[in-house]
């Protein structure tokens, strides 16, 4: 189970699933520099190793892999992974190079740990599509298991980056989940997606401290942006926004 640490209940949901299913659970904690397209975000990424280790021990984890940057990257990787159209939409478009970094580090971890199963959160929905592509195209003998998003009581998706939000930003950040919920409800009631999307974008524009990057309807199998809701397709709404300086992402699956 790859993580970047600063663990929360969402991470622990993945851990619990793994402990229940596997004979041996290995969790990695590594803040991977190559997947950060923003150096400030990398430098300020929260860290709480001591607390993380206590949480993992109580959860019944067998091993924690906590490598140094030099161990994972004795030299800078020359290899570049390109995930086709996934590079051009949503996270791919807004975080150039991010998925190359994710693909390389997860491949390294898969080679080192050699797991039978690997657990990933639905919270990073496009990352799931990336990992599934990686496993398929490079024939990793690993089953990928996707775990639902764990939320705070008011709906905010748990994220290590939430720790960096001020009290006011924490309240403001709820606009992301609320907008996803409203949009999902309106789609189910038969409203046109483009009308819903426009109305949500306008609401974000009214909030000075929030900068929306995208709010898109996605078909989940091919992971493509859609302009119309189709109840017969597996769809999700994906959003990314800056709340102050903190970039948050979230999504809601509309039909499973
Ligand atoms: P990270 O430490 O952010 O790289 O996340 C490690 C793993 O935990 C990834 O597979 C994430 O998708 C997953 N994860 C992060 N936040 C949540 C959450 N709120 N609910 C479920 N899984 C999560």
Folded structure, characterized:
One of its GO terms (biological process) is pantothenate biosynthetic process. The chain has 256 residues and is an alpha/beta fold. It has two domains: 2-147, Rossmann fold (3-Layer(aba) Sandwich), CATH 3.40.50; 160-255, Pantoate--beta-alanine Ligase, Chain: A,domain 2 (2-Layer Sandwich), CATH 3.30.1300.10. The chain is 39% helix and 19% strand. The protein contains ten helices and nine strands. The chain has helices spanning 9-21, 39-43, 49-58, 69-72, 90-94, 98-113, 125-137, 167-172, 174-188, 193-205; strands at 2-3, 26-29, 63-65, 117-121, 143-147, 210-219, 224-226, 235-243, 246-253. The strands form three sheets. The chain has a four-stranded antiparallel sheet with strand order 7-6-8-9. It has a three-stranded parallel sheet with strand order 1-2-3. β1 (2-3), α1 and β2 (26-29) form a beta-alpha-beta unit. It starts with a strand and ends with a strand. The model has no long low-confidence stretch (mean pLDDT 97). Bound molecules: adenosine monophosphate.
**What characteristic shape results from the CA principal axes?**
globular
Largest sheet: 4 strands, antiparallel
Low-confidence parts: none
Q: How would you spell out the order of helices and strands?
A: EHEHHEHHHEHEHHHEEEE
Q: Strand order of the main beta sheet, please?
A: 7-6-8-9
Q: How much β-strand is present in the residues?
A: 15-25%
Helix-residue proportion: 25-40%
- End-to-end distance: 24 Å
Counted by DSSP, the helix tally is 10
CATH homologous superfamily annotation of the largest domain: HUPs
Average predicted local confidence, pLDDT: 97
Q: What is the CATH architecture assignment of the largest domain?
A: 3-Layer(aba) Sandwich
Give the C-level CATH assignment of the largest domain. Answer: Alpha Beta
Protein name: Pantothenate synthetase
Active site: 11 (proton donor)
Catalytic activity: (R)-pantoate + beta-alanine + ATP = (R)-pantothenate + AMP + diphosphate + H(+)
GO molecular function: ATP binding; pantoate-beta-alanine ligase activity
